[in-house]
Amino acid sequence: MALIFFARIGFGQHVPFDTLLNRAKAEFKRDSDMASYRVAVEKFEQVVALRPDNAEAHYFLAYSYARSNTQDASTDPGMKLSLVIKASEQLEKTIQLSPAYTGENIILDPYSKLTSEWGAMALSCVTNHKIDSAIWVLKEGKRRGGFDDFILSQCRMVFNSCSRNSTLFTSGDNYFFPMLYLQLVEKMRLDISVMDTGLINTKWFPRLLMENGSVQFDLKEPALDTIDYKAWSDSTISIPVSGTGKYFSWVVKPSYQNNYILRSDRILLSFLKENKFKRDIYFTQGYRIDEILSLEEKFLELPVVYKVNALDEPQPTNEKFIADFKSLMMDLRPANKNAPDELVTIACIRYTLYTRINRYLDNGDKDGAKALVNLLNNYLPAKDYPLLETDEKELGEITEKFLQN
């Protein structure tokens, strides 16, 4: 104990705290393996010991614990609960010291990272067939500050937008892990198969989906395990729509460097070919164009999800869209204004409205556009759901169009 004590005195005796913090950050940011992240843990533990009131040091220590536990989704099934607890404790301390955290962000804000850590640990338990443990982990994660009421209510809206026995593709931790919570803890919408496009890049997640029996692919193991990126040019894909005698056709474009499609694209395509639209297929909002297999022109634009339009249905009328939007928004909980990553989900809902507003204005229908603007102002006011920079830009362009009309 004395040796550790004197080592800590020596660590900070003649070096300014900011210098020590930046050295620890540099160690964390090296292109490292998990062993190197354990070195970052040691450095940040020393930094936190010197300045226990520094929120940024606690935040980076949390991420160091997390990265020494699992570097990416490929190693999630081997997560250790002890390291999740350590990361959680540091994130909880970060939030206690700085509820509106203003330090450097790595990827997720402290609130979203809490949800992500406990959600990934729960999924690890599911993968290892320990469902009771997964439920305990999710409840413990909520008790410690993850899975807040706002993000859960937003994900309930997504679930309530999907038809029975459908498949839902999610874009990121703030959709997938809260939905795992809703299905395992609240037993909500167990009829929906949820697939995260980041996780389908791994070998273990598609295998887990097949084991559960809810999702199948036209590629089978071991081929499914070994597929990788592939050279690709614009190609028309046609898939029969089960029970209709019709075909769903679209052009799949390269998603990477204009010359390739990635493993995740090929797995998604394999699912679509095997599914043949026996189940309705939905996507959460917020996907990048290069992540959705060029399906964007084939989406029905619903208030909080996109549905793959297999039967070429007309887009919802303004009246139908507004009625559905109002019905869903009744259950939305107040925003966690200190969690900017969670607010991205609201920005995605707004973006769908902006798209419709612009379409009405381009067609000269100012009244239709106004009805949607009123919807925004009444149900997603900026005072309750703060605007992101992207919102402000879109609203500025819409205002300009109104003035021009």
Please summarize what this structure is.
The chain has 405 residues and is of the alpha/beta class.
Protein architecture, described:
Helix 5 packs antiparallel against helix 6 and helix 14 (340-362) packs antiparallel against helix 15. The chain has helices at 2-12, 17-29, 34-50, 55-69, 81-97, 110-127, 131-143, 149-160, 173-184, 204-212, 223-226, 263-275, 318-329, 340-362, 366-379, 389-404; strands at 167-170, 193-196, 230-231, 235-241, 246-252, 260-261, 281-284, 299-301, 305-308. The strands form 3 sheets. A 5-stranded mixed beta sheet has the order 2-1-7-9-8, with helices on one face. With 405 residues, the protein is α/β, with parallel strands linked by helices. It has 3 domains: 2-100 and 108-143, Serine Threonine Protein Phosphatase 5, Tetratricopeptide repeat; 149-319, no CATH class; 334-404.
H and E order: HHHHHHHHEHEHHEEEEHEEEHHHH
How much helical structure, as a percent, in the residues?
Answer: 40-55%
Question: What overall geometry do the principal axes of the alpha carbons give?
Answer: globular
Sheet with the most strands, sense and barrel status: 5 strands, mixed
Distance between the termini: 75 Å
Radius of gyration, in Å, reads 23 Å
Task: Domain count, please report it.
Answer: 3
**DSSP helical segment count:** 16
Strand order of the largest sheet: 2-1-7-9-8
Q: In percent, how much strand structure appears in the residues?
A: 5-15%
Q: Give the total of beta strands.
A: 9
Contiguous low-pLDDT stretches (5 residues minimum) are 1-12
